[in-house]
Amino acid sequence: MEPASLALFAAVLTLGAASPGPAVVALVARTLARGRHGASAFILGLATGDILWLAAAALGLAALAATLGSLFIVVRLAGAAYLLLMAWRMWTAPAAPPSDAPVPTDQSALGLYGAGVALTLSNPKTMAFYLALLPTLMNLDQLSMLGFAEMSGVILVVLTAVFAGYVIVADRARRFIASRRAMRTLNRICGATLAGAAVTVAAR
């Protein structure tokens, strides 16, 4: 693929990833409540979901997505359900300040990875980017396997960089919390924010 095309894709993807959406909300809220633990697996899952949507766009599945509307509704509701589960866990999390809090072990790396994939697949913003916006910017009908691999590499690099930046900022903000009362308040704010994101995903 031509470097100019890859650069355009990287630029547009960066803008899309950096703009707040359900994935950013979930990542930041989880980091504020739980720290960096598990963030890398969650980010990898989010990036994998993007690669799957790129594959759908390259294979011309936009029409299929419209035809199988009920299937995509199920995927969207599954993503919303996971956000609600995260919201409940944060709302009921122990109110220990970061310096005293143990490393969370309630979710495995594989579980967080799967959650990231499910969230991206159910994200209307990501779906619109790959099935509606991207085909107007690039000719995906003639995309080769090498071109797909190059674009997938761009997705991994861009999303890891952007989302890691959010994690670092959120984790640093979390370290200013020094009391159990403040931690309890933060947990509930994050839980309510995730619940709102779940409603947004389910309603679209």
Structural description of this entry:
The chain has helices spanning 3-18, 22-34, 39-58, 62-67, 69-91, 109-121, 124-137, 145-174, 180-203. The protein is an all-alpha fold and 204 residues long. The chain has one domain. Helix 2 (22-34) crosses helix 8 (145-174). The relative contact order is 0.23. The model is unreliable at 97-105 (pLDDT under 50).
How are the elements arranged and paired?
Blueprint (H helix, E strand, L loop, with lengths): L2 H16 L3 H13 L4 H20 L3 H6 L1 H23 L17 H13 L2 H14 L7 H30 L5 H24 L1
Helix pairs in contact: 1-8, 2-3, 2-8, 2-9, 3-6, 3-7, 3-8, 5-6, 5-9
Class derived from helix and strand content: mainly alpha
| Percent range of helical residues | over 70%
Distance between the termini: 34 Å
What is the N-to-C order of secondary-structure elements (H for helix, E for strand)? HHHHHHHHH
Largest sheet: none
- Name the shape in a single word: globular
Number of domains: 1
Return residue spans where pLDDT drops below 50 for at least 5 consecutive residues: 97-105
Number of helices: 9
As a percent range, the share of strand residues is: under 5%
Rg from C-alpha positions? Answer: 18 Å
Count all strands and give the number.
0
What's this entry about, in short?
The longest helix has 30 residues, at 145-174. The protein has one domain (30-203).
